Amino acid sequence: MAKQYYLVSQLPSVENLDASRLPITENYYRDLCGRFLDAKSQKIVQNLSLEPPKDDKKTGSAFLDKWNDRERCLRFALAQVRALKMKKEAEMLPPGCTADIIQTARTAVGMDSPLAAEEFLNQYRMDTLNSLAPLDSFSVDAVIAYGLKLMLAQRMKKFDVAAGKEAYHKIYDEILEESK
Q1: Backbone conformation region of residue 87, classed left if phi is above 0, alpha if psi is from -120 to 50, else beta
Q2: Residues in CB range of 119: below 8 A, 6 or more apart
Q3: Burial of 93 by CB count in 10 Å (0-12 exposed, 13-18 middle, 19+ buried)?
């Protein structure tokens, strides 16, 4: 446990940061955790992902299992709302899908700007992590929550308006070429 105190004290805050100025990288975070956590916790951190498994697979962390359940429900809700919008068949929502998750998906899909929708979903995910985070900021679950927040911030850093427009125009031009 003493090693965890040392680990947490070395992790700079990721709260309210501009994604362009992240204090550490995901690789540094994983490396640091590898030096201070027990083998079971290290394995959980090494397998940490923003994309939960489609099935309800347990991770060994009650906190991470709750996060994965919420994120899985959000992804299913987004898929269902998008499918319904395109008048296609969608998979059933998992049993743990709450009204706030469904409303979040509807709001995001209804936005005109994909970037605005991603920013909205990112904020929802950060708020969800904050609501699920343990009170003990020196626990393994707090270290896991930190890793997820860092991964979310790094993901948002990848979004660039100019690059998005360029990719859109490239795809659009390819579709036009194929239709000729």
Answers
A1: left
A2: 156
A3: middle
Residues near 174 by beta carbon (within 8 Å), at least 6 away in sequence = none
Contacts of 49 (CB under 8 A, 6+ apart): 151
- 20 against 123, higher pLDDT: 123
pTM score: 0.85
pLDDT in tens, 63-111: 999 999 999 999 999 999 999 988 898 888 888 899 999 999 999 999 9
**Closest CA relative to residue 41, chosen from 93, 81, 1:** 1
| C-alpha pair distances (Å), 104 with each of 35, 54, 76, 107, 149 | 38, 20, 12, 5, 19
